[in-house]
Design goal:
The structure is a homodimer. With about 325 residues, chain A is of the alpha/beta class. Chain A is built from nine helices and 15 strands. The longest helix of chain A is centred in the middle third of the chain and has 13 residues. At the A-B interface, helix 7 and strand 13 of A face helix 7 and strand 13 of B.
């Protein structure tokens, strides 16, 4: 019988395995227009932490006792829709379960992209998926990257951050700096083309960032918040731009986080801070896929995945993601 | 002998009269290209507080023992430039003194504007000057005001705030809300067309703002920072925009101010926060003057001044400005 992972309780602070439970899912009959999808890969993403809280936000909270949701890639095993055939590979949003039953119009058939035949289908959850679009839109549209910019990316070894840094270079940034939480990640960032990288756990962010960017930065791509944001405000140049993408430093906080003490610099330096949610920008997916697939074909873009096997490992994969135990995209293979 | 006001010492926290001294200025001979201007009106503005500190910012700090500077209106009394004649009324940046000697190219001759003959020349320091341009650019360019927006302006009874609120209405805002620091100012805001106004000293900002804008706000014009900014982030609607113009709540702080605790809302609500300095936007002055002079002619725009007499009163006028003892533009008549 197919299984699913449900929200057993809401975490206060850091989630634990107790907040999740594996249950049997049943196998309902399809109705007209539906398909049954055998999931092959599912995504765990930092934003899911917000959905575990019972608070109104841009996506509704997960419900207690109900299966979690999230990006997944699967194969159609049964269809009552003329739009999808058995064996079709699809991207959809009912991860955290072995099998998903959904209207065919909620599943996106994965089209072959020339020159990317060697990619795992899981790429559509990472380097060709939501994290890539997040990086692409955040840099190009929200932060309005210009050739010659000096760019700083926090959480740079993650799925979004590693794409953001590389896209910045490929789109003409003069210099790209990344922060990450271990020496291994810092080494990897240098391998994939970051001009400078530092371990934020080794010393305060401000000093390391100032050293890496003695002339200042023009763009900050923020995945972290907290001291990373405060240090960036201090180091940004006049007319600098900040794309606020995530604030993983705060996701498990049980108290209201302190805001940056130097927000007055936004005025004196004429900075722009702009928050965004990738789902508002689906219209940019074709441009991203065209660029990214070209870079992959030409060997100009590096990506990696941290892959965990088995649905029952999804909760620990998610918890480890929040703890930064991944390099590149965190994937659960089902 | 003409007098001037010099910086006697740098304030720590709130400035006091001891930080200023009146000295004799001398009357140097003009060299070619210079003019001597008898000042008639001078401006005191909140941004001058920043120049009293010895810190690098967008304008250099005032120097100890040297006369202060700032916007002034005067009459040319002696000229060695073909560009300005005796009796010309000019706007320039050497206030805080009875007489100014400067290159003619640093003085801007005030051209007659049709239909504004009844205005005091001091208007060029306020309703037709830098505060008006600040409000105009902040609302229209930085916050990208759209017809139908709900707009909140803090420090709304000041020179910039009172213009910002009125310009918002005149440019099609659906509803304009202002905050000020006394019941008298709140009454005045209602008289000049604010749809709602509240006294931020009477109760917490958040509750009063939420009550005045139960459906949320689209634009926040920030002159204050602090709890005003935090409350606005809480009340802003999705895709809301913040023009960060000033942070008078922090100008006399001796410790680093706390940042807003809810900056994460910038992401979930997709907000844009943008700081600006009016001097970057002089190219917009003709459009502002065309609009404002038209509104003045048509009786659609209200303005007031708090006028103090005498150069030796300028320090107390400035201190009172920082304490909020002005309604509309604070002017010193010399």
């Amino acid at each position: 019988m197919p299984r699913q992972i449900v929200l057993a309780s809401r975490p206060s602070g850091w989630p634990t395995e107790d907040n999740f439970a594996v249950t049997e899912a049943g196998r309902p009959e399809l109705v007209d227009g539906q398909v049954r999808v055998r999931n092959l890969f599912m995504s765990v993403d930092p934003y899911m932490r917000g959905r575990m809280n019972d608070t109104k936000s841009y996506v509704p909270p997960f419900q207690l006792g109900e299966p979690l949701q999230g990006g997944a890639i699967g194969s159609v095993v049964e269809t009552r829709s003329p739009d999808l055939a058995e064996g079709d590979l699809v991207l959809h949003n009912l991860g955290w379960r072995d099998e998903a039953v959904l209207p065919a119009r909620h599943a996106q058939k994965i089209a072959a992209i020339e020159g990317t035949a060697g990619l795992s289908p899981s790429a559509y959850l990472g380097v060709l998926g939501m994290p890539a679009l997040t990086a692409y839109v955040g840099l190009l549209d929200i932060a309005a990257l210009k050739p010659g910019d000096v760019v700083f990316v926090s959480g740079a070894a993650g799925a979004v951050g590693s794409m953001a840094g590389q896209i910045a270079k490929l789109k003409g940034a003069a210099r790209v700096i990344g922060s990450a939480g271990s020496e291994e990640k810092v080494s990897w960032l240098r391998e994939i083309g970051f001009d400078a990288a530092f371990n934020y756990k080794a010393a305060p962010v401000f000093g390391q960032l100032r050293e890496a960017a003695p002339e200042g930065i023009d763009v900050y791509f923020d995945n972290v918040g907290g001291d990373h944001l405060e240090a960036s405000l201090a180091v940004l140049s006049t007319y600098g731009r900040v794309a606020l993408c995530g604030a993983i430093a705060h996701y498990n906080a049980t108290e209201l986080p302190a805001g940056p003490h130097n927000l007055g610099l936004v005025i004196t330096k004429r900075l722009t801070l702009r928050g965004f949610i990738v789902s508002d920008h689906q219209d940019r997916a074709p441009a991203m896929i065209a660029d990214v697939s070209g870079w992959l074909r030409d060997g100009k873009l590096f990506h990696t995945e941290t892959v965990v096997d088995g649905l029952d490992q999804a909760p620990s994969a998610f918890i480890n993601l929040l703890r930064g135990h991944n390099t590149g995209k965190m994937i659960v293979r089902l």
